[in-house]
Amino acid sequence: MSRNTLMVKRKRPLDTLLKTAIYISATVAVAVLFGIIGYVFFKGFHTVSWTFLTTVTSALKQTAGILGNIVNTVYIIVLTLLIATPIGVGSAIYLNEYAKPGKIVSLIEFTTETLAGIPSIIFGLFGMVFFGETLGLGYSILTGSLTLTLMVLPLITRNTQEALRTVPDSYRGGAIGLGATKWYMIRTILLPSSMSGIVTGVILALGRIVGESAALLFTAGSAYKLPQFVNSFTENLGKLASKVTESGGTLTIEMYLQMQKGQYDTAFGIGCVLIIIVLALNLLTKLAARKLKAV
Fold first, then answer.
1. Measured distance CA(8)–CA(281) in Å, rounded
2. 125 contacts: CB under 8 Å, gap ≥ 6
């Protein structure tokens, strides 16, 4: 009687070898991650202080702060997502729900996937020539945001498409059978049902925006000045709005420049702040997906 049954499985040497290789690979991956994080924090955590986070670099005041770069990073994140999210989600809805399957849809999806694989430095060169010089936007936060929009659009679009495809067709058929219009069905059934996947794609795009440097080096510049506020609320709003047309270096740009200057402690300190931001974004992704699945 064979002993290799569902209840009693014979252990094969190849299975044991593959299982061991999987555990070793997972251990190495986790060890590399913790090694990088630990090394960066060991080299730069002593640089991070309240003054470092709340001031700007000034030779007169003898301060080395990154507040201006944090503000610029927030500007670019918000502006990029405000432009890219509606376009990406709308494109995915059209491709998945309205466009008829065929060569055109396949071509668009292939183009989107190809766009996601283009090196960021190419996006930077295109953004500098088209948005900066042709449209006359120069080195500015707006130029950087428009360039990053092109970079994260494939990520948002593809994630939204995959999220929409997970919704059962019975939901669509049931809504249409009850007399709902297609847009009403998309707005009230499909989008809420796939919201966790859409949010995950948006937050992943946010993570790429935070970590991008090559494209922004050619488009957004490296300035770190803060808006000079006055007592007038209207004038302050105007200064906040006009900042998008000014040059603004993000945290990654400032870290690159500090490395060039040989200021390794400051660069590692910025690296610590970036790691904390990335970890917070990953945690936010998990929490948002979990909350939206429970709704």
1. 45
2. 218
Looking at the chain, list the stretches that DSSP marks H as alpha helix, in order from N- to C-terminal side: 13-44, 50-54, 67-93, 103-116, 120-127, 141-165, 169-177, 182-185, 191-193, 195-211, 214-219, 233-242, 251-261, 264-294
| Rounded Cα gap, residues 279 and 53, in angstroms | 18
Burial (CB < 10 A; 0-12, 13-18, 19+), residue 96, is buried
pLDDT at 4: 56
pLDDT digits (tens, 9 = 90+) for 170-194: 888 888 888 878 888 888 888 888 8
Least confident of 103-107, 202-206, 216-220, 278-282: 278-282
- Contacts for 44 with CB less than 8 Å, ≥ 6 apart: 265, 267, 268, 269, 270, 271, 272
Both tokens of residue 293? 């699945």
C-alpha 246/C-alpha 244 separation (Å) is: 5
Q: Which two tokens stand for residue 213?
A: 């440097």
Using DSSP's 3-state secondary structure scheme, residue 58 falls into: strand
Distance separating alpha carbons of residues 228 and 247, to the nearest angstrom? 15
**What Å distances lie between residue 185 and 89, 94, 99, 170, 172, CA to CA?**
16, 14, 16, 12, 7
Pick the range with the lowest mean pLDDT from 4-13, 104-113, 273-282. 4-13
* Mean per-residue pLDDT, 108-127: 87
